[in-house]
Amino acid sequence: MNSKIFNLNWEKFNYKDPEQRKNLAGALQYYCALPHKFIPDRFANVQEFIKTHKQVQEFTLMSDGYVNEKAIDIIQKFHLLTDYDNGYEQIFDIRDFSGTKAGGFDLAASRSGLTFREVKPGEKLKVYQMAAAKERVYFCYYGGALGWHRQLFEDGDWWTLDDNAIEFRNKAYSHRAGIYYALLEAAADAKGCCATIAADCDDCDADARSIATSINYAAMNILTNVANRGYDLNPATTQFIVLTPLQLRGRVRYALGQRMQAFSDSERLIDYNFKQITSMMLTTTNRIMVILPGRTLKIGYRMDLTLFDDFDILSYTDTVAGWMRHGGCIGDIDQINCITLSEESGSCPDASYNPQVACGTVPGDTLEDLRD
Fold first, then answer.
1. Are 5 and 31 in contact (CB under 8 A)?
2. How many domains does the chain have?
3. What would the pLDDT profile of 222-253 be if each residue is shown by its tens digit?
4. Which letter does DSSP use for residue 190 in this model?
5. Same-domain status, 220 and 193
6. Would you call 163 helix, strand, or coil by DSSP?
7. 108 and 67 share a domain?
8. What is the DSSP string of 200-226?
9. Using one digit for the tens of pLDDT, what is the confidence trace for 70-114?
10. Domain co-membership, 97 together with 18
11. Which domain, by its residues, includes 126?
């Protein structure tokens, strides 16, 4: 049986062979490094990795766009679909520090007062000194471990081995994403929101137009507040991110598609260039954020998901420990505005963790319980 994520045949794998265990560790490292934004040094000369990494970055970027059929085919062929949220990488300016010895980076909030004026013949230009308050952003370590009990190899439980590796990678990158979504939410909490919009179930168009108008205002307010901060802005071309919780995804998508008149060629109601990103990691589910991406929203990746393996004789387990190191900050809170929306009402059955099986007994429920 071939592994669905590793380039090996499980039935020919001999876990007692140190060389084969080493190859498995290398394959796991290869698999875990594919979603990283930058190519790790250890794979910089591996052409197969470079090609596959490019496909991951091109076809699995988290957004509210639809991938084409070719993209889906490639994702399925290489099992590259990322089951974690990486939309934040479109919001922050991310730098690669993996080849350095840096323990962090400095963010300078520069203010020069620089202006251009007429200079008459014989006059000298005035030199404006840069005044900047520096903030140090440190790279922190984050880690987790995966244990493969050797009974899995002895019993040929290959599906569990593959699934564990997939879950390990997804949780590592999901944890990193959660840190930076929390940072964005903290900034929104500190600043406060522009407007509160109640859900209007009687007139969907009126609700959408209210949301669109508020999103326009939030973007205008950002442009006005940061106009003299050297961010290279143009109202006609500057892109904003509308960061949306899952609960509001449909209403915001509908709002961004609103038009001035009731025909398809009419101009859109929105005034600026918006891109919607939906995340399930946002803890405040009735708030959207309008964000000017990049600029002072910075992240540094010091170490990608790096694995170390060992055999624990006391637990009869091959253990793989994964470590990451990164740090980030928001230097200018005025790059973010938020809007509070009332959540739509609805109900569904309560969640249940009991598995449904084709034969055998479902834990926790008897047939009589189900009939009741």
1. yes
2. 3
3. 999 999 888 889 999 999 999 999 999 999 99
4. H
5. yes
6. helix
7. no
8. -SS-HHHHHHHHHHHHHHHHHHHHHHT
9. 444 544 444 445 567 889 999 999 999 998 999 999 887 654 445
10. yes
11. 104-132
